[in-house]
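Why run this: before we spend reagent on co-expression, it is cheaper to look at a predicted model of the complex and decide which construct boundaries make sense. The entries below are exactly what would go into the expression plan.
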Amino acid sequence: MTGGEVVLDVDGLRMRYGATEVLHDVALRAHRGEVLALLGPNGAGKTTTIEILEGFRLRSAGRVEVLGVDPAHGDERWRARLGVVLQSWRDHGKWRVHELLTHLGSYYTPYSDGAIQRPWDAAELIAAVGLTEHAGQKIRTLSGGQRRRLDVAIGIVGRPEVLFLDEPTVGFDPAARYEFHELVQRLAGDQGTTILLTTHDLDEAGKLADRILILTAGRIVAAGTAADLTRQIAGEDEVRWTLDGKPCVESTKDSTVFVRELFTRYGEAIGELEVRRASLEDTYLTLVRQSEVAR
Amino acid sequence: MNPRGVAMRAGWQRGVIELRQSFTNGAELFSHFLWPVLMLVALFFLRDKAFGGFQLGALVLPSMLGMNAAMGMVSMSQQLTADREDGTLLRAKATPNGMLGYLVSKVVSVAGGLLVDLAILLVPGLIIIDGLATGSAESWSTLSWVLVLGLLATLPIGAILGSVFTSARAQGLIQLPILALIAISGIFYPITALPDWLQWIAQLTPIYWLGLGMRSALLPEAAVGVEIGDSWRHLETIGVLGVWAVAGLLVTPVVLRRMARRESGSSVAGRRERALQRIG
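The model came back. Tokens follow.
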């Protein structure tokens, strides 16, 4: 997507809790304005990785830089350039939407610089996340989807250069999910925000991310665009046909070559040809299965 | 303005907003009034009883003020635990200088709430009870410095208790020893009537000195006869409360920082899981 400034840079990241190693040698890199998805099953180490990058958890080993700073030593000026979308529960229930965003935004005023005016104006921000009708409402009266949009608003009130989203759409209905995806795409597109999100939802990763990193059992087993990943790994196309009316099926890495040979050999006898390309889902499941066998 | 100044001002505003919230919703208003009203009812029936040449009501009211002031430490501790459990603290941590603003807001909202609670007790108390020495400016200046010093001594203790005891259940348990200390602190019963060893324990706590300071401010000079050494012991009051305040202000930042360092999305999610299991 972009060849700009490197915003996230992780190399050889390891994390150990006592004797259990939960991250082995994780490496990733993101440029300005890029959306990265960390995809993997539960317990793969996604949350640990993102919390290390947020500066909320100390790593065991490796090099980590977020906006050129080691999160373990990030100061408040660094913190002001970061956005963290937290899973809310019932905090600030008595506050009103507008009141809370104005309050949290005020901490960012001293951190404006030439390019970025901080914080985001509360009314504008509320409009951007579609909560204008609810601006004066008490937070505990919001629905689940509205609350989640407020969480995003809180995460971006300081106009962050990097935004971290941990499992952002868990518990969303399809409509809320759609609106949320729109919002993330707008942030990355219009504001040039670099975004790292974790998800175990494959469609979400495919839809939102410029690049997907597949994390299983603490290792990044594959990385690339959705198309790259499908091409790169194990995914075999499935070819079905009939030979003199008898159904046949075969999996192959290169379906074009296979089908050409099929016609060369049997010609007119072939019917009902059907080629199903390997999907991202097949690729993902294959990878997860492989790494589980290896473990 | 520099970032820390901005955060402190934001914290002040946050404290004022929380204070306003706590006086504009039914459940919290009820808890603000419940204890003062019960105490006032008790005072009303005690008002004419005599004790050692004084009216019992007059002797008890200042002690009650002292006890209520000491209870600020319990509400500080409870609020910290609640804010950690529901993720308020993690939000503060994710905001630049947010922890500083958060702490300022807690001091403002807890101390502010306490002042209102004390007024709810004191104003009607002065109407019901005769025999208090409230005519002089000295009474009020003594009351003010005892209160300020007492809050400096007790609120940091509350913050430490709130950082160390993480669950709402543990918060319920720590109230028991505090209630025991209140029972022996000379608030309900003259301390001189207690065994020596209990007197010593009581005099190590800021609760006793808050009560003594309040009595010295509001009681006539002759009432000093029921106190240890027949003296209001202002110097000792300043000494003990001062030691607690200095120790608290030295230790609290360390403990709070350690607690804040451990906060992350997954620790809040873990507590949320446990809390939901308790409910379900």
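Chain A touches chain B through 34 residues (CB under 8 Å). The domain at 6-230 of chain A is CATH 3.40.50.300 (Rossmann fold). Bring this page to Monday's planning discussion.
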